[in-house]
Amino acid sequence: MMRILHVASEIYPLVKTGGLADVLGSLPPALVKRGLDVRILLPGLPGILNGMTGLKPVMRIGPVFGAATVNLLAGRLPDSGLEAYVIDAPFLYRRDGNPYVGPDGHDWSDNHRRFGLLGWVAAHLAAGELDENWMPEVVHAHDWHAGLAAVYIAQNPGLQTKTVFTIHNLAFRGIFPIESHLDLGLPTRKLTPRGIEFHGKLSFMKGGLIFSDKITTVSPTYAREICTPEFGCGLEGVLRDRSADLSGILNGVDYAVWNPDDPAIARRYSVDDLAGKSDCKRALQAQFGLSTEARGPLFAVVSRLTSQKGMDLLLAALPDLLRDGGQLAVLGTGEGDLEAGFRYAASSNPGSVAVYIGYDEELSHRFMAGADVLLVPSRFEPCGLTQLYALRYGTLPLVRRVGGLADTVVDVTPENLAADRATGFVFDDAARHALGARLTEVCAFYHDRDAWRQVQRRGMMQDFSWDGSAANYEALYRSL
């Protein structure tokens, strides 16, 4: 039975800031169903320590990485029952709030030590030094937080462990001052342009890209995009050099969590009986003070409120949405100016625009069920999960043709409607006029109830479960 260690900084439902947590909550159980022996390594953040069951000590490690007390614990995750290792380093991890950012809104100043330790422990697990009863054959590291796992493993040429590194978002590159290598125990020979040096600093992301045996990202289109200057974030040359080892494997959805037979929503419904979706819409409108007499569709946003997500484009195009009788409900948090912009839009358009600044998991389910359209106008999008959730709820995604959005939403065109392939709406240019024009077309299409129902049902029948993605990951592991 092949042994796989996943290494990541967050996992649903214990700690979640974005799609990474959803992936870690779903992919390992899907691999276990395929017969693999999978364990997970996590930092001892409060939500993780409090949410695990049966935690017991495996080995005392510290002092290391500036922490006097470091212990490796093992226990089980609450929903899946999977075994997981937890690094209990109170000085580094027992902090309230966001895993990466302090109360002042800036990154924790010792993030290089906090996540360097994560990669270091993964490497020593691979060497059999921390748990004599279990050694991984493949270490699968996720995003920059785990990027040094491959670097530390590569420092030991005697290790047979293979490494896979998955890019969830290349824009977050884990960049730190070059002198941080002294805290991390990295030799100076690694601090070159052919190593982890990045414009006079060091990058955890680049470490993962250079030293892993295989690189994946979370959609086929994004795998091609990041090899170009527009999307490569300064690492496109590295990715082109490693293109033979780079592949895109689309993220999946846990349909046990995201489906319209959902206890969190006002009334359950299905692809064969959509009546309950209207009740869900009325309940969402009532909860947020939106008019039930609007002549257009109810658009929703469930997103980080950032320019990457195209939220500035949406604010600029909002007059087009409202002019055609549409409504907007927003759930998210992010850049201060965009939060303020949406708050102002809500105060200026009572009954038509509603905003909830923050994140609430149960409320996100009610948004998916109650909206007619989910807006994802991203400037770039490695995969995107919300559009996949929306499809299963019969909520039509309106997306920009980038990354995983391009791979998962089939545009409403006459040809696609005739072939019964259409599942949502797509636009191309990251420009206010392009989004505004598409919003106008969506509002017009909304009044063709038969065609709208056809697209809803086609979207609800799409299968983006983890089964196919897990099979692709298993094939990648076995190729190593």
Can you walk through the features of this model?
- The structure is a single chain.
- This protein is α/β, with parallel strands linked by helices.
- The protein folds into two domains: 3-252 and 466-479, Glycogen Phosphorylase B (Rossmann fold); 275-460, Glycogen Phosphorylase B (Rossmann fold, 3-Layer(aba) Sandwich), CATH 3.40.50.2000.
- 37% of the residues lie in helices and 18% in strands.
- It is built from 19 helices and 18 strands.
- It has helices spanning 19-33, 46-51, 90-93, 111-126, 148-154, 181-184, 204-211, 220-225, 236-241, 275-287, 311-323, 336-348, 361-370, 386-392, 403-408, 414-418, 432-445, 449-460, 466-479; strands spanning 3-7, 37-43, 53-60, 71-76, 83-88, 138-142, 162-167, 175-177, 197-198, 201-203, 214-217, 246-248, 298-302, 327-332, 353-357, 373-376, 396-400, 425-427.
- The strands form three sheets. Strands 3-4-5-2-1-6-7-11-12 form a nine-stranded mixed beta sheet, with helices on both faces. Strands 15-14-13-16-17-18 form a six-stranded parallel beta sheet, sandwiched between helices.
- Helix 11 (311-323) links the parallel strand 13 (298-302) and strand 14 (327-332).
- Helix 1 crosses helix 19, helix 4 (111-126) packs across helix 5 and helix 5 crosses helix 7 (204-211).
- The longest helix has 16 residues, at 111-126.
- The radius of gyration is 23 Å and the shape is globular.
- The relative contact order is 0.10.
- The mean pLDDT is 96.
